[in-house]
Amino acid sequence: MLMPRGNAPSRIASKYSNFHGQGTLLSGELPAEEKISFPTVAKAIESAKLDDRFAGLKPIIRQVGRVHFDRPKEEIRMLREIMDEMKVYPCIEDTEVAIPDPFTSFEAAFCDYPSIMREIKKNGFTLPSPIQAQMWPLLMNGQDTIGISQTGSGKTLAFLLPAFLHIDAQYAQYRPGEKKPCPSVLVLSPTRELAQQIESEVQKYSYNNYRSVCLYGGAAREDQMAVCRAGVEIVIATPGRLADLASAGVIDLNRVTYVVLDEADRMLDMGFEPSIRRILFEIRPDRIVALTSATWPEAVRTLARSYTKEAVMCVIGSLDLTACAKVRQTIEEVRPENRFNRTMEIVDCLSNMFQDNFKVIVFVKSKVLADHLSSDLVLKGIDAQGLHGGRSQSDRENSLAQLRDGTIRILIATDLASRGIDVPDITHVINYDFPGDIEEYVHRVGRTGRAGRTGEAISFVSWSDRMHFTPLISILEKSGQEVPYWLREYANRYEYRKANGQEQPRKFFRRNNKDNFQTNY
């Protein structure tokens, strides 16, 4: 019923009743014609009245907490400018949408929720991050919200705390002792590491003892099914495993009222769009949707337009691809055979300067290199671990735990760890191998300089990486970094050669996500 934007052919409407019943569509491929044209969200909401899957469901209570619309416009403009040049506007141009004032303190948002305030104070937070300041009132007002900001900007709590209040409001409609439908909240995440991180935040707040489950591949399916059948209010899941359990009838998605698509750009990049569409088809179309992303490519825009209604954009900084200005970015020309020695020099320097007060992620291009490099560092007396999709789930969790608690200082990782893993005190990133595209470079750099901290990213490059030099220079300039003269010369030489047919055209392939995919289903 809820599908990509477009006008639905009458023959689709006539056979719509074939899709009644939980999990029917999840178990099969979308018919070809239905991949092309589907009703808008508004039409889908009207159609839902005729859909027996949603018959008898209580209305969604959209507004929770206290939000305000009464501050002078000039004051709001100045506030948003101070908040990292925040921009807030309707997702669809030329539409009128009421936008609540941003919160300027935690008390303004959660003064009526002492358990949330206690946890906030325990964590030493002083002010909401810019993305939180505006996403909280939007979601608490029941509006579909799209949050675009760099990694490490606080997007998880931006959608999670309103979700707790949302569950409160839905359950207030039921009499004491009356069975409450669940789950009410669904968070879709691209990787199991990010899903686990979100669940840890849920457990940290323990709000009203709401139960949660984290669903991802690599863990015991039967155990996950048992938890789901026992009943949970919050589901955090990777798309593949959720689609699997939903098609098996383990989870009743048509009772979900609050949906989060976290790291939407990453999920689409990893090929999860079919699973996402199938999952959203099973959820009542009048749900509240929060979508977060670090970038705003056309694929994410299409997804947002297809599955939100009168959504509000909340953009921190620029929609253009940029790296965090708080991270110092250094580019070094280092041949592959010299990179291990250069890495050792950097690690020795960090040890001398910071003693044990540093943490480093070294990004490499392959699982084999991750294993070899971590072994070589251990042989040199340096505690290091590798992290990639070829390792068991328990090994990966152990590696991350050791990095978080300081048992190890260096993690050697493939791009699996470039997004979604929140180790807030990473001080340095080393790009041992330059990534396959400039977007991945930005996401790797974003592993440091999180939560307002500063950081440093050191990238090794050689002439073989020349096709990335022009966009790399653009990223460096936008974030106020120094551009080495030799990098400009290489970029100019490459562009000249390309213009004169001396460079072979690049063959573009979809990124090989085997390292990621096997961890998500």
UniProtKB/TrEMBL annotation:
SUPFAM superfamilies (alphabetical): P-loop containing nucleoside triphosphate hydrolases
Chain ranges of the Helicase ATP-binding domain: 136-314
Entry's EC annotation: 3.6.4.13
ATP-binding among keywords: yes
Record key words, sorted: ATP-binding, Helicase, Hydrolase, Nucleotide-binding
Gene3D superfamilies the record matches: P-loop containing nucleotide triphosphate hydrolases
Family matches, as InterPro entries: DEAD/DEAH_box_helicase_dom, Helicase_ATP-bd, Helicase_C-like, P-loop_NTPase, RNA-helicase_DEAD-box_CS
Keyword Iron: no
Signal sequence segment: none
Helicase C-terminal domain boundaries: 326-491
Molecular-function GO terms, alphabetical: ATP binding; hydrolase activity; nucleic acid binding; RNA helicase activity
Group of enzyme by EC: hydrolase
GO (cellular component) term, any one: P granule
Similarity comment text for this entry: Belongs to the DEAD box helicase family.
Protein name per its UniProtKB record: RNA helicase
Species: Diploscapter pachys
